[in-house]
Specification:
Number of strands of chain B: 36
Radius of gyration of chain A: 28 Å
Radius of gyration of chain B: 28 Å
CATH architecture of the largest domain in chain A: 2-Layer Sandwich
Strand content of chain B: 15-25%
Strand order of the largest sheet of chain A: 1-2-5-4-3-6-7
Shape of chain B: globular
Strand content of chain A: 5-15%
Largest interface: A-B, 26 and 29 residues
CATH topology of the largest domain in chain A: Nucleotidyltransferase, domain 5
Largest sheet of chain A: 7 strands, mixed
Number of domains of chain A: 2
CATH superfamily of the largest domain in chain A: Ribonuclease H-like superfamily/Ribonuclease H
Number of strands of chain A: 7
Structural class of chain B: alpha/beta
Shape of chain A: elongated
Oligomer: heterodimer
Number of helices of chain A: 15
Chain lengths: ~400, ~850
């Protein structure tokens, strides 16, 4: 173990190797301006007619959130959307983790405007948080102003990470919790619904590659980000800050592009991706899970619409879901053929549905009995099935006695 | 030999009491009523006592009676919330005990307060009342901390009962590792009372204090129950967690009052002050009533007059338990090791649970059992369906097991406080109870039973903490820096804060910016700091009999090498399993059922290397040093011991990784020339050092008020070329640096090498918990009293009660370990400045430790020696 003196010396040597840029120099180097001492602001306009990856951005000027918002009346058309992403000193969470860069993206006119604030020292953190609150129209320490429509936040994993972290930082800076009242859409959740069973993971960069058709070049790997800022703050080593800011900007563009792309997955599955450059085949989503999510939100209409739109490509789980949606509307003529097809292919759930259908709806007891026997042969251990079989046999015998 | 002193009034020491404040008490009281009035049980104790006196009078070295004591009552405070008063009335409580009222007055005056009363004397009301009142008055919040989850659950149940009785509308929630994620948000924001433990506070609450802002902003009281368990390393950690807690409270604008509860220790106010970091008001006058209590000191009989050999304490405890159980007296037996618990349980089960189809009357209870099993035993004890429990210190704490009639201690537990805590397990009701301390052949045990006036008059031990121990302090400084930035002028412990923070900056954990230090590392420091020494991970014991895979027990990391080596017999409820395979990396032991007629006991030895000298004093060729040492413990093998006869029926080898630690120590050695002049042979000198070490170890434990196991001892070469250890046969053996056995003759042949045997007494906790400094200050007394202990011993050539096990090769002519030990001790002590300690006033305690063993009979015998090593 190195002694303290040795360690200090190493650090001093390292610090001496770099001439730290002044705040102004750094702002210039990053293409931004010094908003306050210690706070660099960088603004970047991405015209909406340009695609991000192979994904068109132009729908962002009239974003559709209807598929995402469940019961709540969609804010689309009224509330401005603010895409948000932070870069932090670590992933551990807790009061020792700091957001040193906050980036937001907003549609302004025909462009998506990305605004990033980077602090060059700890003491600038309150100014950073204030910049965010100002941009969101929230006065520090109070509820968002009532006059302007409140913005709604869109993030990727922000519900578990970025927003709690910002709430902690506001608390630490004694600036209240002005963000608490804002509506917030975390795209990680719908993305998981649609692709958790399809993709190796649901990281933003995976979604970029598989859904947006974007490959990043020269990207700063996420795990290095805390170290880059620490190196800058401790040693003045600023060379990689540009890559860091770039990383955050691409994250924000991807986040923004993800909203319409994911919307299409939910609403128009199977439709070719609207893309101005290279047409990318739409990845097949997990339609069963999407339908279930919509039903949990009491929107069976959307569930059904999704499944019907995706129908040629539905798997067994999704077909069962569709049949069940038909059943709940009493569309037996649509449900039964699906069950029959699946039952012939060996689906026990479909067999059970047919047994129930024939027992309770068509009242064809011999048909019900036949399906129930199939069920019991396939799953002899299930007491519910055995009970159903016993009941059916009794009724069948009674009816035989009655009519025989 | 002391005569028994019957009917002496025990000084105002409170054992056993009943509570007008708790759900437990009410439950217990109703049960007690059934038993006392209707059943013959209550009467059974008197005939038992007279029978013991009649038949075993010569074994009873003292019989004292603490008379029943009336309750001291006090009226409800005038400002007590009427709803609260009503709730108490609904629970059958019409007035308070005096200490409950005193606690109320002190706490309401805004003083940090520690209440020292026996278990179940209504201490919970001491904190529940002000806490509930504060919730009702101002919606203020409180945080309860218990050392274990099980205790927390008991207390919440009681709190909820009171809450329901008065319809108080108070929300109390438990927050521990079992709390589901979706409940946590509600607890953080809605709980009036959050019940947790120091570990959760440290790892989950403080690092996320902003999420707990509503709690911290309104925190009025912090309740710390079972405070006496926060001592040593654990206590030093907890004191630092409290520093962090108070720092976070200050940030959120609160300054809570601490209410602490403790079993009897010597320095409750001091310990409380150390934990809280502020002056704490002490309430020690217990107003709860107590039933009559008899305490016997019991020395096993001499069974071989020629050899002066005494029966084992185990045989006596088994006999006493059998007598008590036959009288249907509920009985708790405490033993000092887990192995002893299992063996005693087996002997009692062989008598009382011969039919496995019936519900057992006897159960074992110890750490390592699965929580469900422990809860089940506690429940059966409370319900009165279990007649006897055999336990380690695990039941010393406030686990609710109801009250019992008889408490038997198999050997002196090592501390006065621990002894009274265990004895307190019998007789909490208002009825007569009996406690018996049965002595083993260890020096301290023999001293206690032969000096009842010492035992009954001794102050309980000090609970020591050292919150500024640098390793511990730095760990919590990291956590604290993570929780909130430090500013110039802040303090955290005694050492200069800026220097410590600059050190952390050197490790790139914090970054200094102006006058503030900010956490900058991508890590969560609390995650890598464990308050208890279990960081290495517990072992699970998996039963694979007949292809099954059931977890039957857990073993903490430090005892795993001693209990889970391949070939070991591992017992749960005295049923034996054999360890087939030990997966050290995976922390698993695979066992199968066996019906072996033996149990196993590990043979371990210790190697020690000096790392650094801190301070030393050398006079006339005798050197005493305090410094840092590196300890390596190794389990070399095990012996198989047959039940009942306790004969050795075989050995096995064990191959396990070494267990290493750094700690602080005090060591003594002699200038080599002086040694050569004083002994003819080097092995004689070595015998002398081994014997001196044994005596010094016990004397040091007594003088420094530590437990014997808190200090380790070793005899070795100062250069680390050899060390002497006690082997399986109970004799010392010389080993080289790689632990290979050496022939003592080597010492004689190797004349060119300086011969410098050294006695080491080390702090037996990683990093040290501050035992070595007081020991160094007592270095002269340790040597002097060890010398007078050995000199005063009635044996001829050395016995377990003075010089302990010695080197092999007793066929050598001229062997006289006792004389050799005295030579060593006199040489070590001769240099001592005579003027300092001649007036008979011994520094810490009015006891002549030498007298402890001076009065021993000629107990010496090889088999006793062996027994001492078995630890049974």
């Amino acid at each position: 173990m190195a002694t303290f003196a040795q360690r200090m010396q190493r650090i001093e040597t390292r610090a001496a190797a770099f001439v730290p840029p002044t705040d102004e120099e750094l702002a210039a180097q990053l293409g931004g301006r010094l908003r306050m001492p210690g706070l660099v602001e960088i603004e970047h306009r991405h015209p909406l007619h340009l695609p991000h990856g192979s994904c068109a951005m132009d729908t962002l000027c009239r974003p559709d959130l209807d598929w995402l918002t469940g019961d709540r009346p969609a804010g689309a058309g009224h509330a401005p959307l603010v895409f948000i992403d932070t870069e932090t000193t670590g992933l551990a969470g807790g009061s020792g983790t700091l957001a040193f860069l906050i980036g937001i993206a907003r549609v302004q006119g025909a462009a998506l405007v990305v605004t990033q604030w980077l602090i060059t020292r700890f003491s600038a953190e309150p100014a950073l948080l204030q910049a965010l609150l100002d941009a969101l129209g929230c006065a520090a320490g109070s509820e968002p102003a009532a006059i302007a429509p409140r913005p709604e936040l869109v993030s990727y994993n922000g519900k578990s990470f970025d927003l709690p972290l910002l709430a902690t930082r506001l608390k630490m800076a004694r600036m209240g919790n002005a963000l608490g009242g804002l509506a917030h859409h975390d795209l990680l959740h719908p993305l998981r619904t649609a692709f958790a069973r399809r993709w190796p993971d649901c990281r933003l960069q995976t979604a970029e590659r598989l859904l947006l058709g974007l490959e990043r070049d020269d990207d700063l790997p996420g795990h290095r980000i805390p170290g880059v800022w620490a190196d800058f703050v401790q040693f003045g080593e600023a060379r990689e800050l540009g890559a860091l800011v770039q990383h955050n900007r691409v994250d924000l563009l991807s986040l923004a592009a993800l909203l319409p792309a994911l919307g299409r997955v939910f609403v128009e599955p199977g439709a070719p991706m609207a893309s101005s450059t290279t047409p990318v085949p739409q990845p097949l989503p997990d339609s069963a899970s999407i339908a279930r999510m919509q039903r949990r939100r009491r929107r069976p209409d959307r569930a059904r619409a999704h499944l019907i739109a995706a129908q040629p490509a539905l798997d067994d789980r999704a077909l069962l879901e569709l049949a069940d949606l038909h059943r709940s509307r009493g569309d037996w003529s649509l449900a039964v053929p699906i069950w029959q097809r699946l039952a012939e292919a060996g689906s026990l759930a479909a067999v059970e549905s047919l047994a129930k259908y024939h027992e309770h709806v068509s009242r064809d007891l011999s048909e019900a009995l036949r399906w129930c026997e199939t069920l019991c042969r396939a799953a002899p251990a299930d007491p519910a099935h055995a009970g159903r079989l016993r009941r059916l046999r009794q009724r069948h015998e009674r009816r035989g006695a009655l009519f025989g | 030999m002391e005569n028994s002193v019957p009917d002496t009034i025990l000084p105002a020491r409170a054992h056993g009491a009943d509570t007008p404040g708790s759900a437990r008490a009410l439950r217990r009281r109703s049960r007690a009523d059934q038993r006392t009035e209707a059943s013959p049980r209550a009467l059974a104790l008197e005939p038992l006592l007279s029978r013991l006196e009649r038949r075993y009078g010569d074994r009873i070295t003292a019989h004292r009676v603490a008379p029943a004591r009336e309750a001291k009552l006090a009226p409800f405070p005038a400002d007590l919330d009427p709803a609260l008063q009503q709730a108490l009335a609904a629970r059958g409580i019409e007035s308070l005990y005096s200490h409950q009222r005193a606690a109320w007055d002190s706490v309401r005056a805004g003083q940090h307060t520690v209440v020292v009363t026996p278990t179940a004397s209504g201490k919970t009301l001491c904190y529940n009342l002000p806490v509930l009142q504060a919730v009702r008055e101002t919606g203020a919040k409180s945080l309860y901390l218990f050392p274990t989850k099980a205790l927390a659950q008991d207390q919440v149940a009681e709190l909820l009962a009171l809450n329901e009785a008065g319809e108080l509308g108070v929300r109390a929630f438990t927050f521990d590792g079992d709390t589901p994620g979706d409940a946590r948000q509600a607890i953080r924001t809605r709980g009036d009372i959050v019940v947790s433990n120091p570990d959760m506070l440290h790892q989950a609450i403080l690092p996320h204090h902003t999420k707990w802002a509503q709690l911290f902003e309104n925190l009025k009281y912090v309740v710390v129950d079972e405070m006496h368990s926060y001592r040593g390393v654990f206590g030093s950690h907890v004191a630092n967690v409290m520093r962090r807690l108070r720092r976070i409270c200050r940030f959120h604008g609160s300054d809570p009052v601490f209410i602490l509860c403790s079993a009897t220790i010597a320095n409750p106010v001091e310990l409380a002050g150390g934990l809280v970091g502020a002056t704490v008001h002490g309430i020690t006058d217990n107003g709860a009533p107590a039933g009559e209590k008899h305490v016997l000191l019991w020395n096993p009989p001499v069974i071989n007059a020629d050899l002066g050999l005494r029966a084992s304490s185990r045989s006596q405890v088994t006999r006493l338990a059998r007598i008590a159980l036959k009288q249907s007296l509920s009985t708790i037996v405490f033993a000092n090791s887990r192995l002893a618990v299992e063996v005693l349980t087996k002997y009692l089960k062989d008598v009382f649970d011969p039919d496995p189809r019936l519900e057992p009357r006897v159960a074992a209870y110890r750490g390592g059992y699965l929580p469900t099993e422990r809860r089940d035993i506690e429940r059966r004890l409370r319900a009165g369906t279990l007649d006897c429990v055999v336990s380690t210190s695990a039941l010393e704490l406030g686990v609710d097991i109801g009250s019992l009639d008889v408490c038997l201690l198999n050997g002196y537990p090592g501390t006065i406080a621990g002894t009274w805590q265990r004895l307190g397990r019998a007789g909490r009701r208002q009825r007569t109870s009996l406690g018996v301390l049965v002595a083993s052949s260890e020096p301290l045990d023999q001293y206690m039973v032969r000096h009842p006036e010492f035992f009954f008059g001794a102050s309980p031990e000090h609970a020591r903490i050292d919150p500024d121990q640098l390793l511990i302090l730095m760990e919590h400084l990291r956590c604290a820096a993570f929780e909130l930035p430090f500013e110039a002028g802040d303090t955290f412990g005694a050492p200069p804060l800026a220097e410590m923070l600059d050190y952390l900056a050197g490790e790139r954990l914090v970054h200094r910016e102006g006058d503030r230090w900010h956490w900058i590392a991508d890590s969560y420091p609390a995650g890598s700091v464990s308050l208890r020494a279990i960081a290495e991970g517990n072992f699970v014991v998996i039963d694979t009999t007949d292809g099954a895979r059931n977890v039957i027990a857990e073993v903490d990391w430090s005892s795993a090498p001693l209990t889970l080596y391949e070939g070991a017999i591992y017992m749960v409820q005295s049923r034996p399993w054999q360890v087939e395979r030990l997966d050290w990396e995976g922390r698993k032991a695979f066992v199968t059922r066996t019906d072996a007629d033996y149990y196993t006991d590990a043979i371990d030895f210790t190697r020690l290397k000096i790392l650094d000298d801190f301070e030393q004093e050398g006079i006339d060729g005798a050197l005493a040093v305090r410094g840092e040492v590196h300890i390596v413990r190794r389990v070399a093998g095990y012996k198989k011991i047959r039940y009942y006869t306790h004969e050795n029926i075989g050995y096995g080898e064990v191959r396990l990784p070494d267990n290493e630690m750094h700690t602080t120590a005090v060591w003594w050695r002699l200038e080599p020339g002086l040694l050569e002049r004083s002994f003819e042979r080097r092995w004689q000198a070595l015998d002398g050092f081994l014997g001196a070490a044994h005596a010094m170890h016990h004397v040091a434990a007594l003088l420094s008020m530590a437990e014997v196991r808190d200090l380790g001892r070793a005899v070795g070469d100062a250069e680390g070329r050899w060390h002497a250890t006690v082997d399986a046969d109970g004799r010392g053996r010389l080993r080289g640096p790689d632990d290979q056995p050496l022939d003592p003759g080597m010492l004689e042949r190797d004349v060119d090498q300086a011969f410098s045997p050294t006695v080491f007494l080390y702090d037996n906790h990683p990093g040290g918990v501050g035992l070595s400094t007081p020991l160094y200050d007592l270095r002269n007394e340790v040597v002097e009293q060890a010398a007078s202990l050995v000199r005063g011993c009635a044996c001829l050539h050395g016995c377990p009660a003075c010089v302990g096990p010695i080197l092999q090769s007793d066929e050598k002519p001229g062997r006289d370990p006792k004389r050799h030990a005295l030579v060593v001790l006199d040489l070590l002590g001769a240099a001592r400045p005579r003027t300092l300690q001649q007036d008979g006033e011994v520094a810490l305690r009015p006891v002549d430790a030498a007298a402890a063993v001076a009065t021993l009979d000629a107990d010496a015998d090889a088999s006793l020696m062996l027994q001492g090593i078995e630890g049974l």
